[in-house]
Amino acid sequence: MGTLQILFLIVIWVLPAILFNCKMDKKEQQELKNEFKNPFALFGVGFVVIGLLLFSSGYISSLKLPQHIGAIMVVTSWFTTSIVGRKRKKVSFVTSIALMLLGVIGIAVYSCLI
């Protein structure tokens, strides 16, 4: 792995954390900490962000394992968000089914590209 790839990996993992914390005051940071104690926040936002970072890291470093783990995390979050959104009645049944079908199509496309 080249120096530029290592540098890029460091930037994509560190830069969002730095920018995320610098733009918030203490009250907003505390509200965010309280919000992340909710399990839905972990599956909804956390898995997507970490999954995309892992997928990108695997793609940049040409390692398949982080790519697969990242893709699994994104798909898991996708299904969890659509199911919980339906249970909380924030999205309709048709929208929830459409989101799940898009997730299945995404899995099929990803498995064909492996």
Task: Tell me what you see in this structure.
The protein has five helices and no strands. 86% of the residues lie in helices and 0% in strands. With 114 residues, it is mainly α.
Helix content: over 70%
Radius of gyration, in Å, reads 17 Å
> How does the major sheet shape up?
none
Structural class: mainly alpha
Q: So what's the overall shape?
A: flat
User: What is the end-to-end distance?
Assistant: 21 Å
What's the short version?
The chain has 114 residues and is an all-alpha fold. The protein has five helices and no strands.
Highlighted features:
single chain, 114 residues, mainly alpha, 5 helices, 0% strand
Secondary structure layout plus pairing:
Blueprint (H helix, E strand, L loop, with lengths): L2 H20 L3 H10 L3 H23 L2 H24 L5 H21 L1
Helix pairs in contact: 1-3, 3-4, 4-5
